[in-house]
Amino acid sequence: MERAEPVWERAWALDEIRKGSQSWSLAADAGLLHFLQEFSQQTISRTHEIKKQVDGLIHETKATDCRLRNVFNDFLMLSNTQFIENVSNQKGAGCSKG
Q1: Is the whole-model pTM more than 0.90?
Q2: What is the pLDDT of residues 8-22, one digit of tens each?
Q3: 13 vs 34: CA distance, rounded Å
Q4: Which residues, other chains included, contact 6 with Cβ-Cβ below 8 Å and sequence gap of 6+?
């Protein structure tokens, strides 16, 4: 038969903390300490997960910014090419008339 852990060696549930608040004891302190340590560890773990997700989003955002700037540059180069072609065509048309 498996023996249950003593109350001071495990994290207390919130209901246990509420019920124990009327007659607080050293065991309640220990249970609260374990609860807070587990809560802290879970919070730190979740924070690390969120940080990884945010870092991924930052990377994707920077990559998207780079692609967008490349598209702008492509449009500018196309505009410049068309301008040069139009000037060349106008000069060519002007020479043949003259």
Answers
A1: no
A2: 788 888 898 888 888
A3: 10
A4: 27
